[in-house]
Every structure is written in C-alpha cells, then in structure tokens.
Amino acid sequence: MSEKHLQAGDVLPQYSGKLRLFAMRFCPYAERTVLVLNAKNLQYDLVFINLDHKPEWLFNFSPKGTVPALEYEQGKAIFDSNIINVYLDEKYPDVQLQSTDPLRRAQDKIVVENFSGAQSAYYTAAFNAPALQPSSVENYHKGLDGLQKELETRGTKYLNGSEPGLVDYTIWPFLERFEALPLLGKTEFAIDKAKYEILTTYIEAMKNVPAVKAYRLPAETHAKFTESRAKGDPDYNMLDSSEVCCMRPRKKKE
Prior knowledge:
Blueprint: E1 5-6, E2 19-23, H1 28-39, E3 44-49, E4 69-73, E5 76-79, H2 81-91, H3 102-114, H4 116-127, H5 134-154, H6 166-178, H7 197-207, H8 210-213, H9 219-230, E6 244-245, E7 248-249
Parallel strand pairs: 1-3, 2-3
Antiparallel strand pairs: 2-4, 4-5, 6-7
Helix pairs in contact: 1-2, 1-6, 4-5, 5-7
C-alpha cells in the first residue's frame, strides 16, 4: 500500500468495490476508523489525503473536506469518525464492538467525553506550545487520572471488557500520540509508570491488539511528524516508499 498523500490535481483512484476510507496517516480521528475496520476484519481501501492541499474530489465525499470519510458505495459516503464507527458496528455486527446494554454504551460515551480535556491539552502542547498554560498540564493529567480510575473501577483488561471495543479504539489514537510529547521536550506530559501503573499496563496491552498493531506508529515517528507540522511544513509523505503514485512516476528518494 502506498502511503502517499494525494493532493490538489491528483486523480481519484479507481473504485475497487470495497469500502474506501479517506484518511490522513497521522490523524488520530482517522485512525479511530482504521482500527474499527481492522477489528471487524473488513476489506477496505485506504486513500491518504494531504490536508493542506486537498484534492478537489474529496469534497464529494466530505463536504467540509475533513477526514475520515467512508465511501460505503461508489460515490456515496459518510464522514466523522464517531458517525462512521457506529455505522460500521451496526452494519457489520459479526464482531460487535459496543455493549448491548444502553447504560454501558452511555457510560462509554462519558469516558470519551471526560478524556477530551487531555486531548485538547495534547494539541496545545504538540502544535501551539506558546499557548501552553499550567491549566493545560492540569487538564491533561486530570484526563489520565480519570481514565486510570475508570480502568480500576471496571476491573477489566480493556475498557470494553476482556476484549477491546469501540470505547478503546476511540481513545487509543491519542494515547499513542501522548508518548511523543516527552520526545518533543514536553516532559511534564510524560505518563509516569509509578503514578499510572494501571494505565500504562493498559497502554501496553493495547499496543499488542492486532487491530492496533497493524497500524500503530512509534512515538519517534509521531514526534517527527509533529515537529514538521509545528514548523508549518507537515511531512505527510515521510512514510511513503512507493516509486509510482497517482498514475505518474515519482522520483526516488535520495
């Protein structure tokens, strides 16, 4: 699979008949849907998008030009990871990722909502460091504390239970990226094992989940992309090793 991000002027690849996901390789929201597709063992094609120079045809699938967007039939798509993932879970129920209990589903949504403060703090630390306030660090650790307490209360390997579910795949992409912050000099955002023993055990377990393992990137890679984006020149294609893409030859990397 090419990890080239298509951009303005590039041709839309031919539709293969599979589900097709428009994504960005380093986007945590797009990763949420990739993980759900993987967990459900669905066949799909991935098309990566340069979000700074979007192909014109992307707006046919996502009116706001955002990713992820899922083409479920040729020319027909839905967008937003939360909407897509619930659709996939209901459309393809063989591997069920949500609880059948309405209360537990509501509780899972609360877990995700309570974690949003940590996500916001991450974005500030990673991409807008001058705007960092003591409250950002406080909100970050408050989110981690809350997640650890939830894991302790549930007493299960994953938030979903003995196997990961939608709530785990929704939160994981940010935990994956949090590990890059200390590499960017933000040591106050480190997830200390002594303080977060339950949470770090959970993180290591998630790294070995097949759906995650197939797509996860190491902290060093996330740090490298984050640095490029923070400098105003995101290196979208840093992982691409294809020699031919977008129906035209590419120069070999020096």
